[in-house]
């Protein structure tokens, strides 16, 4: 039943086998035996896609309910059934993985030695069920979703900065109007491909500044590196540039202007029982981010 449900959810025997850490032949054989046992065809197989038969749709609905109930029962016990174990797939932005999760992963894996953590990095919309991902971590305001539950785990502030060499050559902007006289490294939105404007709060009003520049990038590490090379002003998450400001490689600008804080959220499927493994990771990452007071 677990294998059948997984095949339906990822629409692929190979992806289901990979997510269950099984050979594809094992999943194929199991589904064939299940159909023989029930005496009905559950899936229509073509060279391009899989689809449920009417009997398969009915059986899948019952399987999903029974498996969720079984998970809930096992999770209610303090013994082995409710312990975090198995493969956990989490997708997150590269900068979040690099700055928070990977440096602290040893702590999580030591606490839960039966968990195998698979971290994938991206900043694109993902279909958690189709791609076999247990939860994702994203920054920014989230769109309303009927399929995902979002839990806010932290927020971060922005900083505008530049190298001392750039400022010596081009001058230091003292107000938002001065920004229009400067070159910036432009950041491309990961989903839309458009240049992201800089947003400030001035006298209680939201102010948008559209910067100009000769270089645009779509990766935060590359963005900060470009700023460190003196290629223009940058506006990015404070936690990414604070070490460079402390070392003197970058200078913070316009500190008197407030910039909107950006929420960081972990999301998981709404219609799926939250397994002990996923719950353990969410509790751990929430605890980890609560310790980061300088975001």
Main sheet specs:
5 strands, mixed
Measured between the Cα atoms of the first and last residue, the distance is 44 Å
Q: Percent of residues in beta strands? A: 25-35%
| Class of secondary structure makeup | alpha/beta
CA-based shape: elongated
In the CATH hierarchy, what is the architecture of the largest domain at level 2? Answer: 3-Layer(aba) Sandwich
Offer a quick outline of the entry.
This protein has about 300 residues and is of the alpha/beta class. The chain has three domains: about 1-75, Arc Repressor Mutant, subunit A (Orthogonal Bundle); about 85-155 and about 265-290, 3-Layer(aba) Sandwich (D-Maltodextrin-Binding Protein, domain 2), CATH 3.40.190; about 160-260, Periplasmic binding protein-like II (D-Maltodextrin-Binding Protein, domain 2), CATH 3.40.190. The chain has helices at about 1-10, 15-20, 25-40, 55-75, 95-110, 130, 165-170, 220-230, 240-245, 275-290, and strands spanning about 45, 50, 85-90, 115-120, 135-140, 150-155, 160, 185, 200, 205-210, 210-215, 235, 250-255, 260-270.
Topology:
Layout: H1 2-10, H2 13-19, H3 24-38, E1 43-45, E2 50-52, H4 54-75, E3 86-92, H5 94-111, E4 115-121, H6 128-131, E5 135-139, E6 148-156, E7 158-162, H7 164-170, E8 183-187, E9 198-202, E10 205-209, E11 212-217, H8 220-228, E12 234-237, H9 238-247, E13 251-253, E14 262-269, H10 276-290
Parallel strand pairs: 3-4, 3-5, 8-11
Antiparallel strand pairs: 1-2, 5-14, 6-14, 7-12, 7-13, 9-10
């Amino acid at each position: 039943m677990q294998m059948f449900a997984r095949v339906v959810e990822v629409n692929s025997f190979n992806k289901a086998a990979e997510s269950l850490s099984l050979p594809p032949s094992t999943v194929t054989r199991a589904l064939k035996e299940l159909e023989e046992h029930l005496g009905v065809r559950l899936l229509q197989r073509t060279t391009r896609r899989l689809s449920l038969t009417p009997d398969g749709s009915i059986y899948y609905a019952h399987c999903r309910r029974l498996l969720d109930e079984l998970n809930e029962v096992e999770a209610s016990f303090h013994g082995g059934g409710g312990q975090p174990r198995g493969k956990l797939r989490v997708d997150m932005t590269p900068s979040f993985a690099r700055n928070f999760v990977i440096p602290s992963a040893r702590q999580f894996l030591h606490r839960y030695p039966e968990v195998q953590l698979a971290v994938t990095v991206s900043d694109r919309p993902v279909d958690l069920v189709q791609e076999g991902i247990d939860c994702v971590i994203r920054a920014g305001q989230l769109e309303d979703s009927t399929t995902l539950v979002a839990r806010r785990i932290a927020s971060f502030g922005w900083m505008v900065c530049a190298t001392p060499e750039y400022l010596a050559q081009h001058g230091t902007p003292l107000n938002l109007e001065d920004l229009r006289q400067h070159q910036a490294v432009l950041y491309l939105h990961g989903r839309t491909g458009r240049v992201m404007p800089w947003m400030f709060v001035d006298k209680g009003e939201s102010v948008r500044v559209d910067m100009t520049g000769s270089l645009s990038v779509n990766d935060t590490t590359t963005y900060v590196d470009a700023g460190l090379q003196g290629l223009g002003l940058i506006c990015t998450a404070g936690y990414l540039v604070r070490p460079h400001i402390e070392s003197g490689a970058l200078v913070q600008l316009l500190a008197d202007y407030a910039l909107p804080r950006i929420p960081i959220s972990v999301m998981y499927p709404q219609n799926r029982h939250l397994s002990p493994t996923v719950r353990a990771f969410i509790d751990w990452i929430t605890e980890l981010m609560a310790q980061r007071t300088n975001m």
